[in-house]
Structure formats: structure tokens, C-alpha cells
Amino acid sequence: MQSSQTTDFDAIVVGAGFAGVALTHYLREAGLSLRVFDRAPDIGGTWAWNKYPGAATDSEGYYYCLTFSKEVLEEWTWSKRYPGWEETQNYLRFVADKFDMWPHLQFNTEITRAEYQADRGIWIVTTGDGATHTCRFFISGMGMISQPQIPNIPGQTTFKGPCFHSSRWPEGLEFAGKRVGIIGAGATTVQMLPEVAKTAASVTVFQRTPNFVMPAMQKPMTPEWEKEIKENYQEIIDKCRNHVFGMGFNPPSGRTVAESTPEEVQQVFEENWHGSFRWVFETFDDLLATPEANKAAADFIIEKMIKAKVEDPETAELLTPKGYPLFAKRPPLDHGYYEAFNRDNVKLVDIKDYEPIVEITETGVRTTQNHHEFDIIVLATGFKAYTGALEAMDIVGEGGQILRDKWQDQSSSIMGVAVAGYPNFFMVTGPQAPFANLPTSIEQNAQWISECVKKMNAEGKQVFYPSATAEEEWTNLTAEIHAQTMMAEGDKVNSWMMGANREDRKARVLIFFGGAHVYYDKLKESSDAGFPELAFADTAA
């Protein structure tokens, strides 16, 4: 085992969110010295940055968590079904306290470059202030939605008031009594609008593509519900591990829309309308498999969520998704989004077909039809998903190629955890990993990484070289599965799940859609077989 006598650390991790916390546990357990760097001032990852009003999880809190400690599962109490950003961040603080992780975490430190030294078999990692650190393993725990997508709208710097991305919400910003413009109508706006509209003088939402929005049906955690959860935690964990999206839902129902009458379909939909994504997975097994079943689900959602809630028919029509199936774009959960459009101080602007944005001016947003004046402009324009954070720094492989250049046309990987040409480099939930309940996927990745490191240490191996053949096979498999699903429609609606929301990249398959449970099985098969996707060496080449 190479020790910190020859490198500053055995492992350097970038990102102190769920991934950084999980890796700290598993790598320390494997006997490694490590340092976790994060440019944020505190622990939390996504939840250290996304502090906009209404920010909350879309997975129920009791399974949006790490599971390596039964004590933490027993001791921590969630206050509600979907915890907000502050509660989620406090949960991670609790875990860090419990396991004395703070000495391994370094905040307010941005990593700008990581370069593999082939002759020494180490990584040299450079921080924003020019300091360098060496390590044997360089690991990204930066998350799949952490790099903001800033739209290319002329005049952004001319606006006299605050104009910022939603994930960089200014500390102490007062929006009460202000005219607020929100550009973008995705998950962030779905959560933000109801809160901002309560006190703002006016809120104008600029929408390009309407979303399917599922009901959250937020509710407080009761002692009875908490008791039930904690008495059945292992069963819940097993459900997450074996679910197609890594969630604590029941297994497939055995029902299909195709084999049910229209009356039966409506009855099952109605009886299971209790909030969360579980409605999609616990009603019929073919909702994401056939156009007919998908349309039945989409029509039900449109009727229940939009037509029944939005009073103005024209606004309801603008908010109705068209031309793409349910789940081609990731549906957010509703906390009063549609009802907000019934308020006199809320306005919806269609920027796709009616009022395209021309520019941001000193006092507002100019479209082809109007000039909208604002005091505050929020860019709720999403993220450069899966690869953005990795491409924001110079990650230089053994041949001198920077990772973002390798990914110019195709964001290929081995199971989203390794990349050919980048020895001793791991990723957590990188491109071509599944889109699922993230703590579940993060923990599965952290376990795979730690098992790989344990094998290397036990066998005296210093370097692993990811196989180009294995990368090609995984990339082809991911593309083949994607082409067989209704998710392939996502590139038609600029879905971030396809990277189609980016102006600097063509759309590509970023997600393994074969099922999170299948993916977890493949990780386990790889580990049990001794990591055949990697070639191990006693010394650096």
C-alpha cells in the first residue's frame, strides 16, 4: 500500500456532499488517508449551494440518506416527508459529527487542475490559490447537477439589480415587495415560485417547455410514521437497492394498462394518488414502456394537476406539456406551483412560440413582444448535468488529454465510475450512471471504489488502468438501452438528462436507463469478479 509518506494523501476527493461524506466513511474504513476539498464554505454539496426559497428534496427524506450506520438511521429524525435544504444539510453535519469527519474536510477551496503523472503513478492536484497536493487516487464526488448552466442572453451584465443563477442565491436577498423575473420553468421554479409569490410584488415566469409535475403532498413526520419507518429500515434499504430508480418503493405491481379496462385504470390511478413518484411505479408496470400506457398516465396528471387547479384556461394550456412523453423530462414535485398562477401577482410568458427573449436590459427583460421591468432576475436555467463540474477543471490523463476534450462528442465511461486514459481516477455518479435516488447510487459507487482500493492494497497493486474496450462496451450498451426506451424523446425537449440544454455540447446519452437495480448488480458483478474492467499494475508504467 502506498502511504502518505510518498504522497500527501492516499486519496483526494472533490466535493463534500453526500458523495464526499460516503467516500470519507468507506475510504477511511479501507485504511486510506484522504482529504475532501470543496469550494463551498460548508458541508452539503448540492444543499450547500441550492438555498433558494422552497428548495427541498424530491425523494422522501427517510430514504434520501446514507445507510452505512444503523445508529444514524435510528438516531436521526426527519421533520417532514420532503426535507428542505437546511434540514438536509443539518443531516450531513450530524453524520460528520457522529463519525468525526471534519478533520478530513477542507472548505473554501476550489480545485482547478488535476494531472496524472505517469512516471510516478500519482496525481498532482492544484487549488485556486496555486497550492498543490499529491495523491494516489483522485476522486470526483462533485455530483451530477452542480455546475450551473448560464444562458447566453445578451445584456446580462447591464441589469442594475441582482441577476444570478438560482443555485447561487445571494445571502440575505429581500424579494418582498419586489418585481421578480424567473427565467426557466424546471424543478427549481416549481419549488421556488409558490414561496416567492407570497410576498413579491409580482413574479413573471419565462417558460420554454412546460413540465409534467407530480404531486408532493408534503406532510409532517409523526411519531407513528417514524416508528414504522425505523422498525422496517432494512426492508426500506433493500427496496432502494432493488428498485429501478433506487427508491424505497414497492416492487412492480404485476398490473399493466394494456391488460386493464379504462375504468380499472382510472380507479387504480385514483386510489394511488398519495404523492411522490411512487404513483408512477406502484400503479402499472408499463407506464414508461408503451406509448398507450404513458399517455394514460400523462392525461391523468394533466387533468388532476393542471386543469383542476389552474383557473385561467389560456394559462392552463400554456402549462400543459405537449409533444413528449411523461419522464422524457424529469418531472418535479408540486408544492403549490399551479395554484400560484391563480394569484394576481403571477404571470406566465411563453418564450418558445410567442415571446422569445431578445435581451436583458438595465431594468428588465426584453422579448419580441414586450419589455418586462424587474427589480430581481433569477436564472433558473438548470445545470450542465453529469459532466459539467468535471469539465470545469483541467483533469489531465496519462496521455495529456484533458477530460472535457475527450468528452467533446461523447461522454463515455465505465459504469459512470472510471474513464479510459485516466488511471487511478474514480467518479461518483459520473456520466452513463443511472439517474436515481442519489444517496443510494452514491453509496453503491463508494462501496465499489473502496472494494477496488482494498483489492489493490491487498495485492500490492499501485495503479489501475481502465480498459478502453470496457468503456466502449458500456457506452454502446447505454446507447442501445436508451434507444429502446421512451426516454429517447428527451432530446426533443432540450432535456438536461440528455445534455440537450447546453449550448456548448450536442445532445448525448448521459444516463444508463437499464434500471438502477440492474446497474447496482453490474457493480457487484464487477467487484466479485475482481474488477475485470481495470488492468492493475505493481508499479507505474
CA radius of gyration is 23 Å
Count of DSSP H/I helices:
17
Alpha-beta classification? alpha/beta
By CATH, the architecture of the domain at 9-147 and 384-537 is named: 3-Layer(bba) Sandwich
- Into which percentage range does the β-strand content fall? 15-25%
Q: Give the averaged pLDDT, no decimals.
A: 94
Cα(first) to Cα(last) distance is 17 Å
Helix amount: 25-40%
For CATH, the homologous superfamily of the domain at 9-147 and 384-537 is named as FAD/NAD(P)-binding domain
Q: What's the shape?
A: globular
Q: What name is given to the CATH topology of the domain at 9-147 and 384-537?
A: FAD/NAD(P)-binding domain
Main sheet: strands, sense, barrel: 8 strands, mixed
Total count of strands: 20
CATH class of the domain at 9-147 and 384-537: Alpha Beta
Low-confidence stretches: 1-5
SSE layout and pairing:
Blueprint: E1 9-14, H1 18-29, E2 34-37, H2 46-49, H3 70-75, H4 85-98, E3 105-106, E4 111-117, E5 122-127, E6 132-140, E7 163-165, E8 179-183, H5 187-197, E9 202-207, E10 214-215, H6 223-231, H7 233-241, H8 262-271, H9 278-281, H10 291-307, H11 313-319, E11 333-334, H12 337-340, E12 346-350, E13 357-360, E14 364-367, E15 371-373, E16 376-379, H13 388-391, E17 394-396, H14 403-406, E18 425-427, H15 438-459, E19 463-466, H16 468-483, H17 516-528, E20 534-537
Parallel strand pairs: 1-2, 1-6, 2-3, 4-17, 6-18, 7-16, 8-9, 8-16, 9-12, 10-11
Antiparallel strand pairs: 4-5, 5-6, 13-14, 14-15, 19-20
Helix pairs in contact: 1-15, 15-17
